[in-house]
Amino acid sequence: MERARGDIHTTGLGGGAPDLSEPIGGRTASAGVQATLAILDLIAARGTVQLSEMARELSLAKSTAHRICAILVERGWAIRDQEGRYALGIRALRLRSRSEDLPIVTAFRTVAAHFVNELDETIALAVLDGGESLYLAIEETSQPVRYVTHVGSKTPAFASASGRVMLARQERALVRARFSGRALVTPTGRRLGGFQELAQILDAVADRGYAENVEETANGLYAASVPILNGRGVPLAALTTLVPISRALGDRRATIVDCLRRAGAQLSELVSWLPAFEARVS
């Protein structure tokens, strides 16, 4: 759905660590730091990751990934379960919890409470992180059939409703520089017709003032998103709702979009004084 590799779910209730200043895997310490951050980023996005999967996706030697993970586990940044999967440790989770103190997240909680009370659907706050949309905060529906995601999860910005609604307000030259010349395949396998189709999608989103997405980032998911703007009209974030398609049919879809647009306008007013995370706007 609004995250890579996601689907609708039905839910019920050793020794001393190596020195990071030394070369890792025959590369410089700088490369080792880059690899360490990439591993933390992947774990944060996926929740849990096997060492082999990590090495493959990040193009790292398995021995290098193992060395870095050993350091992360030793220092509390990661944990390793009995099946050998790595997850974020207490030190990383402590940093993640600081996002709750951001003014935009505090304001989101107020707006999200009204939205969930009215529709009982999941609503999330996302920001652009390079070419991806990153969840900063989430309020979940109480309904048992829901889209399961978490703070820190990312989706390709070109594919997700949240990413598209933020990209739609960027200069097209910036969007072209990031996405032109690469295969634009959504997490559910739809291949866009290159930058030309993406530009057409973004133009339509800009005209409507909101983005909709049906099963492009996860099977069974309908997502809608509106931009959150500061007082100068610069996009700060996106407000997104994540709804199983079965609950987004006919007139209810229009109701969802209407409620989301009102929530977005309210949140934009509450954070109108904030500076932009990314200052460029078309």
Structure characterization notes:
α1 packs across α3. The strands form three sheets. The chain has a six-stranded antiparallel β-sheet with strand order 8-6-5-12-11-9, with helices on both faces. Strands 7-1-10 form a three-stranded mixed β-sheet, with no helix packed on it. Mean pLDDT is 85; it is low at 1-6, 10-27 and 278-282. The chain is α+β, with helices and mostly antiparallel strands and 282 residues long. It has helices at residues 29-46, 51-58, 62-74, 90-97, 103-119, 161-167, 172-179, 194-208, 251-270, and strands at 6-10, 48-50, 78-80, 85-88, 122-129, 132-139, 145-147, 154-156, 211-214, 218-219, 221-229, 235-244.
List the helices and strands and how they pair.
Blueprint: E1 6-10, H1 29-46, E2 48-50, H2 51-58, H3 62-74, E3 78-80, E4 85-88, H4 90-97, H5 103-119, E5 122-129, E6 132-139, E7 145-147, E8 154-156, H6 161-167, H7 172-179, H8 194-208, E9 211-214, E10 218-219, E11 221-229, E12 235-244, H9 251-270
Parallel strand pairs: 1-10
Antiparallel strand pairs: 1-7, 2-4, 3-4, 5-6, 5-12, 6-8, 9-11, 11-12
Provide the descriptors you would attach to this structure in a database record:
single chain; 282 residues; alpha+beta; Arc Repressor Mutant, subunit A; Beta-Lactamase; 2 domains; six-stranded antiparallel β-sheet; three-stranded mixed β-sheet; 12 strands; 40% helix; globular; disordered N terminus; disordered C terminus
